[in-house]
Amino acid sequence: MSRSFHIGLSLAASCSVFLSLTDPAVAASADDTIVVTATRSAQDPDRALARTSVITRAEIELAQAPDLLELLRQQAGVDVTRTGGPGAQTSLFLRGSNSNHVLVLIDGVRVAAAGTGGFAWELIDPGLVERIEIVRGPRAARWGSDAIGGVIQIFTRQPEGQQLRAAYGRYRDRSLQLGVGGAEAGLGVAARRVGGFSAQNERGFAFDPDDDGLELLSAAAGGSHPLGNGLLGWSARISDGEIEFDQGVSDVTNYSARVEYQAGEAGGWRWSGSSALYRDRLDTRTAFGRSENITRRIQAGVQGERELTAGAFWLVGADAWQESGVARNSWADSRHNLGAWSGLDGRRGSFDYELSLRADRDQLFGSAVTGNVAGGWRPSEDWRLFASAGRAFRAPNFNQLFSPGFSGLFAGNPELDPETSVSLELGADWQFSSVAGLQASVFQTRIEDLIDFAGENFQAINLRRARIQGVELAYRLTSQHWRGRAQLTWQDAEDRDSGQALLRRPDEKAGLSLDRLFAGGHWLGLELVYIGRRLDVGQVELPSHVLVNVRGGWQWSESLRLEGRLENAGDRVYEPAFGFNAAGRSLFVALNYQR
Question: Which of 65, 140, 400, 481 is most buried (most C-beta within 10 Å)?
Fold first, then answer.
């Protein structure tokens, strides 16, 4: 099977991989065989010239994380802030950029809200996730708008066989996961109900000492089927829930679906075409009134790949999306975007290279041209050095364009230009043993025309500038009996106009996860998370803190496993954001049945 045929397999059927932890050797050998997000093509991880990491299904099962926050904040360059308990609004900052500067995809579908440009991370249950690919650095030349800090793609899970998992934890946290599937299709369902705790404390602007809970029901399905001389793949997911917060409650419905056809080879080319839809509705009721925000998006694309010479591949593609947004009693509008791109990826001797160029035409702001260039050199089999440069942009969101504001203040501006960035990176990889390796990166990103509500009557204008520079170190261990990750990130994210640090992004962060796998399917693991000092709203400085988590599992039989996770084992009291509470020491236990 040719390399290009793996493009369709990876995007349409990547969720079909099922990793059982019954045998620890299986978990240890579950390596990242291909990644697809960095170049929109199947690629060995050691060839990617964009810094890429993968959270596999095996690692998700080892971690037993109740939500994506616990998985993502262990990754280098990723800062996550949640304003309260489970289900509360979660913001993710990738390499110090803004939370709407990361392109989020679910099975290839763009899932940002049209109004804010952000994504509701709290709505994705880890039990429905097969793998997560995190690409750091600009990827606009392949994907278009939003990919200034990088791209995070979530691949939903297609179970094989049958699975049932029931869990209970502190704060009346109850969850149930069901999965069933075969070789061609699978379905997963997850339900979670949490009694919760007060989202805010006395320092919060809307403090109410009642418990703020969560009810969430999610489902994901997918499959792949031979059709003609190609492969038809499909995926669909939905989340529906109620999220409480101090003095308010939100009802949310969020779903997406995608179909892709990967054709057989014709004239040396492999072609694929896809179409998708996304819808999000957020209905919020507070003591100050009611709001409803709706996003509708449809997208389609086609891409082709051809091997020019041994190890050199040429990709071309075009994609388009049309989105509409509604903020009830405020604004309603729509727009479309058309993009065309081309990329060249290859290896010649000890050198790797990547070139890409893209042009976008947005209905509202006009045209944008972006590009990437990268090169890598392998002085030996154990070492690789690389350098890259890229340009990216983010189109203004609908709130920034069309919001009428409040009594004439803080209004949007339909004349806004897109935010733009230029990024540079130097990196080194050292595979010092067959089971362990070290990665290091030095990067800088300059962002221009940042949008701020700082014009006349606080209207949105292009004004601010930011400079983000930093260093990332990442270590990975994958052996028969041990699995581990460690990361250390130093960054300086500065608003160049005020000289102040960008909010909620610490200068230093570190993480460690280490699991010992025993014969018979048992394991015991440890997580350490260090978050440095950071500025919050009102220039309040929040102190640093360290969190310790413990997890483990005991395989009772071939099909039944007892699992447990202890979060914040030291019962550390801290504020993830100014005026907001975090969970104390919390124990979760679960029974997992799969056959």
Answer: 140
Nearest to 264 by CA among 595, 7, 38: 7
Q: Please give the mean pLDDT across all residues of the chain.
A: 92
Instruction: Tell me the pairing of strands 482-495 and 545-555.
Output: unpaired
The total number of residues shown for the chain amounts to: 595
Distance (Å, whole) CA 157 – CA 17: 8
Domains detected in the chain: 5-594 (2.40.170.20)
Looking at the chain, the number of H-run helices and the number of E-run strands are: 6, 31
- Mean pLDDT on 103-113: 97
For residue 301, give the nearest of 322, 280, 282, 283 by alpha carbon. 322
SS3 140: helix
Is the distance from CB of 344 to CB of 353 less than 8 angstroms?
Answer: yes
**Residues 6 or more apart from 359 whose CB is under 8 A from it?**
339, 340, 341, 367, 368, 369
Residue 8 is inside which H or E element, if any? helix 5-13
- Looking at residue 33, its pLDDT comes to 60
Q: Any idea what DSSP says for residue 34? A: -
CA dist 61 and 79 (Å) reads: 22
Beta bridge pairs of residue 212: 197
Q: Tell me: the pLDDT tens digits for 536-594? A: 998 999 999 999 999 999 999 999 999 999 999 999 999 999 999 999 999 999 999 99
C-alpha 196/C-alpha 210 separation (Å) is 9
Asked if residue 343 lies in contact with residue 354, where contact means CB atoms within 8 angstroms, the answer is yes
**pLDDT, tens only, 115-134:** 989 999 999 999 999 999 99
C-alpha distances out from residue 514 to 54, 485, 538, Å: 16, 7, 37
The Cα 24–Cα 520 span in angstroms is 7
Full DSSP string of 208-242: --S-EEEEEEEEEEEEEEEETTEEEEEEEEEEEEE
In this predicted model, what pLDDT tens digit does every residue of 234-265 receive, in sequence order?
A: 999 999 999 999 999 999 999 999 999 999 88
Residue 525 dihedral angles phi and psi, to the nearest 5° = -135, 165
Residues 316-333 have a mean pLDDT of 95
In contact, 504 and 535? CB cutoff 8 Å = yes
